[in-house]
Amino acid sequence: LWRFGYSARLLKTNHFRTAASHTSFPAVWMLLAQYSGRIPGLFVAAKKNRFFTMPEAVEDKADLEVYSPNPEVRGMTLLNREAFKRTVLVPALKVKKEIVNALVKSLKHTVLQRPGLKRVVEDPEDEDNRFVILDPHKIPEFSLGESEQEVLKQLDVCPEVSKYNLELTYENFKAEEILRAVLPEGQEVTSGFSRVGHIAHLNLRDHQLPYRHLIGQVIIDKNPGITCVVNKTNIIDSTYRNFQMEVLAGDSNLVTKVKENNIAYELDFSKVYWNPRLSTEHGRIVELLKPGDVLFDVFAGIGPFAIPAAKKKCQVFANDLNPESYKWLLHNCKLNKVEKKIKAFNMDGRDFLLGPVREELSKELPLLKEGQKTSFHIVMNLPALAIEFLDVFRHLLTGEPCSATRLPTVHCYGFSKHHDPAKDIQERAEASLGTSLAGRCSTYLVRNVAPNKEMLCISFQLPADVLYKRPCPDGANPASKRLCTSKDVSEEELE
């Protein structure tokens, strides 16, 4: 009973206790309904089924019946807003205009509270009266509960419930209600989307495509600030991380502005990759960085890791193969006034690791003094392919290994459809690196991309025996040297 908000006062009344003790369970619920009009649809459920039905389910069903557009819109592909008009019969109280405010306040849980609909309307036959519209879910069968009748008695209002013809128009319906009424009955309705500035980005299913332009216009109508709706028409190009798209409704301007973690970015959504669902992950990685750290962003895009890291006073090397991403990366560096803190590159990720990353690590790692707190982080956010790039780290550097505490930390992203995605990502990373990461890596679930497809991040410090090849003496000829990995020497020599 407490789930449905019944007060202790009601439950303790002698009349209720006496009646309940001699009444069957379904009848008890009917008795409760006499004391309160707060169980939406209860009479309907008890009358039809002879047992109590959860009110949430009943209310959802009532929503479909009362707040549904004209059924004639089913199958519409070209939006006709006028066709959605419908008149429904709802309960109302006819009262003097002087007491309207007091009545609405006293019956705040019973009056109509649907956005876009007036709950107080004029009486066309008497300017001194007003109709207070009641929620049809709370007043089933146009019958007031005892608590409502008591309120009316105190305000000296006639308890008679009037039947009011309420006109519903396109403006009164929610996007999901409109699309549910239009699409074939029983088909999945998609009203969700990713918002990128003024652009709404959809991923429509095949059965929704005939209605795509109508869906786009409805989303614009029902979401202030959205002026363009696009639908992805193919999978992401793993080379440049962008995808073809069709403009469904609105203007065709795909250059937009977004704000993520209090940083502004500008981009051409048709030419670069941007996913607002990664905001939390961008923030998580940047949170790991300290001022003075060095970040190598191998697949930087327009800068969601690089720019906040630079603002945190890190030294940043950012790269992206896509010329458009590189252009917008430079633009956003200037926009956020960090262009002097970021060295930007337009290279293949493998070439970036073999070139600028190797050069910087070779120069800086030997110079680190004991106790110096600078950390090196390498972010590889290309989940479709990044794990395949990990083999680049095999013997990337030559010389004596640095202290284990100074070894760079890699944050590599990947997709997995495995039943144990963390294990799958770790095993694939180990295969690329040629070593075990058991006990020295962590995996983080970023998001669910699709049914049975997860995006994960695996983080680990590069093992010295992977990163370094080192000169070691050849026992047969002391004057000559050969290159060997740290596996070729004892642990004592490494120390």
From TrEMBL:
InterPro entries: MeTrfase_TRM5/TYW2, SAM-dependent_MTases_sf, TRM5-TYW2-like_MTfase, TRM5/TYW2-like_N, tRNA_Gua_MeTrfase_euk. Signal peptide: none annotated. One of its GO terms (cellular component) is mitochondrial matrix. Coiled coil: none annotated. It comes from the Eukaryota. GO terms for molecular function: tRNA (guanine(37)-N1)-methyltransferase activity. Transmembrane segments: none annotated. The keyword Acetylation does not apply. Residues 193-464 form the SAM-dependent methyltransferase TRM5/TYW2-type domain. One of its GO terms (biological process) is mitochondrial tRNA methylation. It catalyses: guanosine(37) in tRNA + S-adenosyl-L-methionine = N(1)-methylguanosine(37) in tRNA + S-adenosyl-L-homocysteine + H(+). Keywords: Cytoplasm, Methyltransferase, Mitochondrion, Nucleus, S-adenosyl-L-methionine, Transferase, tRNA processing. Gene3D superfamilies: Met-10+ protein-like domains, Vaccinia Virus protein VP39. Belongs to the class I-like SAM-binding methyltransferase superfamily. TRM5/TYW2 family. Involved in mitochondrial tRNA methylation. Specifically methylates the N1 position of guanosine-37 in various tRNAs. Methylation is not dependent on the nature of the nucleoside 5' of the target nucleoside. This is the first step in the biosynthesis of wybutosine (yW), a modified base adjacent to the anticodon of tRNAs and required for accurate decoding. PANTHER family: TRNA (GUANINE(37)-N1)-METHYLTRANSFERASE, TRNA METHYLTRANSFERASE. This is TRM5 methyltransferase. The lineage of its organism: Eukaryota, Metazoa, Chordata, Craniata, Vertebrata.
